[in-house]
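Hey team,

Filing this mostly as a record. A colleague (T.K.) asked me to run one chain through the structure pipeline before their review meeting, and I want the input and output archived in the tracker in case anyone asks later how it was produced. No errors, nothing strange. Just documentation.

Input sequence:
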Amino acid sequence: MKDCCNTNNGKAQSKSPLKKWTNYIVYTILTLIIGGALALQFFG
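Output structure:
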């Protein structure tokens, strides 16, 4: 069981930086779209 957990943790650690940056990019794009839509509603 420890071997299984160690290999899973190793895989998760190698994939986590890529997942983290893709999540940051997606959330940034969504925030910009929502913020732009709100700005257009208020000032448009």
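Quick notes for T.K.: The first helix runs from residue 2 to 43. Residues 17-44 form one domain.
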